[in-house]
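Support reply, case 0932

Customer input (verbatim):
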Amino acid sequence: MTLIPRQERFCHAFVHYGTATTAARTAGYAPRSSKRQGWRLLRSPRIQARIREIQAGLADHQGRADAAIIGKLEVVYRRALEDHQFHAAARAAQLQGQFMRRRGRDLEGDTDVRPSAPDATPEMDTSGTLSCPESQKSSQKYPWPDASVGAGLRAGGRGG
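Our regenerated output:
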């Protein structure tokens, strides 16, 4: 199963980013056609097989499920920094720390992995936004550093 170098780059980028459009653009396909090329490439059985091989190799290399979770959080952290999404980067780092602390307690024999104060940590909901417990909510009217951003989203609907 031989792929051309650009297809190989696409496979690695797809495993890294998880989206066909971004992977195609990263692999060197034209930005205007990256969505179409990504879709076309993902339909190819050879590409699908290669992506599975890469994923299996990563899982074997990392060995354990907890190492895979830490690795995924590291990818989120790095991409968030690249995109100047500092709150997301901080959250990924926080989750890595929590995971490592819980893992350390599990290795020491402590099976209770609940946080010491259940309402002390913001939780991620299914939409990808953080929900802050009532005890931590600030008196700030808008959660954004610049209040005009929040006002623009409320007034304009989409925020543009």
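We compared this against your earlier run and they match. Two observations from our side: The helical segments are 5-17, 20-27, 34-43, 45-62, 65-82, 86-108, 147-156. The CA atoms of residues 24 and 34 lie 5 Å apart. Please reopen the case if you see a mismatch on your end.
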